[in-house]
């Protein structure tokens, strides 16, 4: 799961010309550390939903990578 | 194949829009309405490979996510959405009933918004520079007695479309409206001949709006020929000025 998630995040980081991730640091903030804006977050949401069948923003706002991992694990 | 969702494809205008888009071989249509009819059966016969109909009641906006995930997404990448389906609750304001208003807003506003959500999410996933077209109405711009509440739903869609255009323009997704004048379709069957003639006399061309002209305008807005047009309302109303 983690490899697939890194790949998804890096697809967006690459497009934005930012440094890609080598591993998942759970404390990283999507907005503050990775610089995701609302459109990046929307793309992340649809890519995660397509891969894992879970809509990470359906119930509340997520920001830390750990929160995304929990959402994905919670749905499996 | 460029798949376009067209709601209300069983109706007079919806079937015209579907047919007009299907004349162009690069497009396929996913028609959505409550129940298949003779029109959709005929389209299926002629365009077996490029026309699909899904029975769905747009009075259930809560079910649209399921509709997208279980049916629409399986057809293919979504290139366009035409929100055409509409419910007309006509009455003067002093008779307004909340149940009828709720039904109308679900069909005319909430479902188009939820379908737009699904279409944009699909476009984001596949990086599609897609096009969204909402069918609104001349009555959102020119007052007609008894149509205030219906006009409110169409005005809501036009405002929604403009901000959609602003919000998603930077990734190449366009959103526009086509505002038709009164047509000789089922939507206007409650009007008497005399009322219709009075409405047509208000137009520059003194005629009922031709659904074919509306269909051609929608096809233009869906296609890349309109690549620099977004956030607009095109009036196809015989010049109701």
Task: Please write out the topology.
The complex is a heterodimer of chains A (76) and B (241).
Chain A: H1 2-15, H2 38-52, H3 65-75
Helix pairs in contact in A: 1-2
Chain B: E1 2-7, H1 12-22, E2 27-33, H2 38-46, E3 51-55, H3 64-75, E4 78-83, H4 98-126, E5 131-135, H5 148-168, E6 174-180, H6 193-201, H7 211-222, E7 233-236
Parallel strand pairs in B: 1-2, 1-4, 2-3, 4-5, 5-6, 6-7
List its salient traits.
heterodimer; A: 76 residues; mainly alpha; Non-ribosomal Peptide Synthetase Peptidyl Carrier Protein, Chain A; 53% helix; B: 241 residues; alpha/beta; Rossmann fold; 7 strands; globular
Protein architecture, described:
- The radius of gyration of chain A is 11 Å and the shape is globular.
- In chain A, helix 1 packs antiparallel against helix 2.
- Chain A has 76 residues and is an all-alpha fold.
- Chain A contains 3 helices and no strands.
- Chain A has a single domain, classed as Non-ribosomal Peptide Synthetase Peptidyl Carrier Protein, Chain A (Orthogonal Bundle).
- Chain B is α/β, with parallel strands linked by helices.
- Chain B has a single domain, classed as 3-Layer(aba) Sandwich (Rossmann fold), CATH 3.40.50.720.
- A 7-stranded parallel β-sheet of chain B has the order 3-2-1-4-5-6-7, with helices on both faces.
- In chain B, helix 2 links the parallel strand 2 and strand 3.
- In chain B, helix 4 packs parallel to helix 5.
- The longest helix of chain B is centred in the middle third of the chain and has 29 residues.
- Chain B is globular.
- The model of chain B has no long low-confidence stretch (mean pLDDT 95).
- Chains A and B meet through helix 2 of A and helix 4 of B.
């Amino acid at each position: 799961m983690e490899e697939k998630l890194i790949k998804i995040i890096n697809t967006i980081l690459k497009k934005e010309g930012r440094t890609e991730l080598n591993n998942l640091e759970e404390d990283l903030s999507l907005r503050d550390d990775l610089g995701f804006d609302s459109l990046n977050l929307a793309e992340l949401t649809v890519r995660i939903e397509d891969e894992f069948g879970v809509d990470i923003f359906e119930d509340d706002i997520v920001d830390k990578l750990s929160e995304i991992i929990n959402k994905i694990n919670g749905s499996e | 194949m460029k798949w376009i969702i067209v709601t209300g494809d069983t109706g007079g205008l919806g079937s015209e829009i579907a047919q007009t888009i299907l004349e162009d071989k690069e497009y396929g249509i996913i028609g959505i309405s409550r129940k298949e009819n003779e029109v959709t059966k005929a389209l299926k016969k002629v365009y077996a490979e490029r026309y699909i109909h899904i029975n769905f009641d747009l009075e259930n906006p809560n079910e649209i996510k399921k509709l997208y995930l279980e049916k629409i997404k399986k057809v293919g990448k979504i290139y366009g959405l035409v929100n055409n389906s509409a419910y007309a609750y006509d009455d003067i304001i002093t008779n307004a009933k909340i149940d009828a208003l709720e039904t109308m807003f679900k069909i005319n506003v909430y479902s188009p918004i939820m379908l737009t959500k699904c279409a944009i999410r699909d476009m984001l996933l596949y990086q599609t520079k897609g096009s969204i077209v909402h069918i609104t109405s001349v009555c959102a711009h020119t007052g007609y007695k008894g149509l205030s509440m219906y006009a409110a739903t169409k005005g809501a869609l036009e405002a929604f479309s403009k901000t959609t255009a602003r919000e998603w323009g930077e990734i190449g997704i366009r959103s526009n409206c086509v505002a038709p004048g009164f047509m000789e379709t089922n939507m206007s069957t409650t009007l008497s001949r005399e009322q219709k003639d009075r409405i047509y006399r208000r137009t520059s061309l003194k005629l009922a709006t031709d659904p074919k002209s509306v269909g051609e305008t929608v096809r233009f807005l869906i296609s890349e020929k309109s690549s620099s047009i977004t956030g607009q309302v095109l009036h196809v109303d015989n010049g109701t000025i």
